[in-house]
Design brief:
Number of strands: 2
Number of helices: 6
Order of helices and strands: HHHEEHHH
Number of domains: 1
Strand order of the largest sheet: 1-2
Radius of gyration: 15 Å
Helix content: over 70%
Strand content: under 5%
Largest sheet: 2 strands, antiparallel
């Protein structure tokens, strides 16, 4: 039963990575410049809300698969130790963006994180797991 739940979470992660990337493609240079220059350092609300929602679903799935300090993972062996660390980083980024911890909920950091090599490695790990387990 827990493997079926893990598969459902992995399917949602794959679907929401695709949705996140579709929204990211809508971000214009003007949006990025506005984010850099505005005192709040925010992306336009509609884009920001969509991206945070998709990251939330991805992070929730990752947490369910690898486990959290509060609960055992459904299939923690689906990811290598290095990939598990990347999952934890995505979960942490989600927590910061969703809950706005301190002043660290700066969209410049969020944008940089979802456009860096580690996110690409995380994405590849999710796609590899999907090919292997779905």
């Amino acid at each position: 039963m827990s493997i079926k739940k893990a598969e459902a979470h992995l399917e949602q992660m794959v679907a929401n990575i695709s949705r996140l990337e579709a929204v990211m493609a809508k971000v214009t240079e003007t949006d990025l410049e506005t984010m850099r220059l505005s005192p709040e350092h925010r992306l336009p609300d509609e884009l920001r809300s969509q991206m945070i929602y998709y990251i939330s679903v991805i992070a929730e799935g990752a947490g369910n698969i690898i486990g959290t300090p509060d609960r055992a993972g459904l299939a923690p062996d689906w990811f290598t130790p290095e990939e598990t660390m990347l999952c934890k980083q995505i979960i942490g980024m989600r927590n910061v963006m969703l809950h706005g911890y301190s002043t660290s909920a700066d969209d410049r950091i969020f944008w940089q994180n979802i456009n860096d090599r580690e996110y690409d490695t995380f994405r590849a790990a999710v796609m590899r797991a999907a090919q292997q387990y779905l």
